[in-house]
């Protein structure tokens, strides 16, 4: 027996899917989501076509199978599918097992999202984009024993392309270039033009979020320039891209966070990026940090707003 789907149902699913995509950057607007997908594919077909397919799988699962309402409303399976697609296409080279492993990972994203949701709800935390990080880490570790070659495009030592863009330009131009590179790397795409496109698109639909996207990335970039002692590694924009996501995410909750708190957490994300890079990539583990600094910073921010009254370790006279 076939199931008939009315044209109205198709339009509802299309709207809900693009709304889910838009929530990758904390907006809930189907037009924003559609523009983000279409223009991103125009910038790099391979990377964002993978993101499109993986996000469709996530959305389809949330529609066809029992899914907690909060996960559907916030599009978390769609979001994690999108991030998984861009990260997988950026981190791994095309090879015979590429598409098989891609599909395995994409279909695992909804299950990892539900599992993390069940674990983290006890602390009133969202899984955010933690599920895609787990999926990529598993495949990254497996790539050493299967024919899934890793790409070096996200490696911190792969700098030749970046340096070619910074030769013989003044410091202010280097800072701007680094900021836009950092913005583009939210979706693991090292392209300053794409970073500028994201800034303009976000600012059109939400000037407040666009402002904190800009100021958070700028503050992290300037902070890294200052603490690096002038070392040119800051130009990569590799450690400041999480600050932009933190700025957008916290700006979406103005009732909880004022501007000083938002900027403080943006800088904190930079130091978490540096620490996690040394711990995970340089400490022998060999894992890419991906968006983990953003996830951890956002969790710290949310927990700082919900202190528990009954603290078991505090002296009784203090409680």
Topology of helices and strands:
Blueprint: H1 7-22, H2 30-43, H3 45-64, H4 69-73, H5 76-91, H6 98-120, H7 130-142, H8 160-164, H9 171-184, H10 192-205, H11 207-227, H12 241-251, H13 259-281, H14 292-304
Helix pairs in contact: 1-2, 1-5, 2-3, 2-10, 3-5, 3-6, 5-6, 5-7, 6-7, 9-10, 9-11, 10-11, 11-12, 11-13, 12-13, 12-14, 13-14
Structure description:
The chain has 319 residues and is mainly alpha-helical. The protein folds into 2 domains: 11-152, Ammonium transporter AmtB like domains (Ammonium transporter fold, Orthogonal Bundle), CATH 1.10.3430.10; 154-305, Ammonium transporter AmtB like domains (Ammonium transporter fold), CATH 1.10.3430. 65% of the residues lie in helices and 0% in strands. It contains 14 helices and no strands. The protein has helices at residues 7-22, 30-43, 45-64, 69-73, 76-91, 98-120, 130-142, 160-164, 171-184, 192-205, 207-227, 241-251, 259-281, 292-304. The protein is globular and about 55 Å long. The termini are far apart.
Give the number of helices. 14
Considering the protein shown, what is the CATH homologous superfamily of the largest domain? Answer: Ammonium transporter AmtB like domains
Query: Strand content of the residues, in percent?
Result: under 5%
Tell me, what's the shape?
A: globular
Number of domains: 2
Which parts are unreliable, with pLDDT below 50 for 5 consecutive residues or more? Answer: 153-159, 309-314
Question: What is the radius of gyration?
Answer: 20 Å
Structural class comes to mainly alpha
Labels describing this entry:
globular; 2 domains; Ammonium transporter fold; mainly alpha; 319 residues
């Amino acid at each position: 027996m076939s199931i008939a789907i009315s044209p109205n149902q198709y339009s509802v699913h299309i709207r809900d899917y693009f709304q889910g995509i838009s929530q990758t950057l904390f907006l809930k607007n189907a037009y924003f989501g559609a523009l983000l997908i279409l223009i991103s594919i125009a910038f790099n077909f391979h990377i964002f076509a993978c993101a499109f397919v993986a996000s469709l799988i996530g959305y389809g699962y949330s529609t066809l199978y029992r899914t907690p309402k909060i996960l559907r409303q916030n599009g978390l399976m769609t979001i994690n599918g999108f991030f998984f697609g861009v990260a997988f296409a950026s981190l791994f080279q095309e090879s015979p097992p590429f598409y098989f492993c891609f599909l395995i990972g994409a279909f695992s994203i909804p299950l990892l999202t539900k599992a993390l949701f069940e674990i983290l709800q006890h602390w009133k935390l969202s899984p955010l984009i933690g599920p895609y990080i787990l999926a990529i880490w598993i495949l990254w570790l497996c790539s050493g024993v299967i024919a899934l070659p890793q790409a070096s495009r996200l490696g911190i030592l792969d700098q030749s392309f970046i340096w070619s863009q910074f030769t013989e330009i003044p410091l202010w131009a280097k800072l701007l270039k680094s900021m836009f590179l950092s913005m583009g790397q939210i979706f693991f795409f090292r392209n300053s033009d794409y970073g500028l496109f994201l800034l303009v698109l976000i600012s059109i639909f939400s000037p407040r979020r666009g402002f904190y996207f800009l100021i958070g990335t700028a503050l992290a970039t300037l902070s890294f320039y200052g603490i690096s002692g002038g070392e040119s590694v800051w130009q990569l924009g590799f450690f400041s891209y999480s600050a932009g996501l933190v700025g957008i995410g916290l700006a979406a909750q103005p009732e909880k966070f004022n501007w000083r708190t938002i900027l403080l957490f943006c800088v904190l994300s930079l130091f978490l990026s540096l620490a996690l890079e040394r711990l995970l990539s340089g400490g022998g583990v060999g894992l890419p940090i991906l968006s983990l600094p953003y996830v951890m910073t956002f969790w710290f921010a949310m927990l700082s707003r919900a202190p528990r009254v009954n603290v078991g370790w505090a002296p009784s006279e203090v409680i």
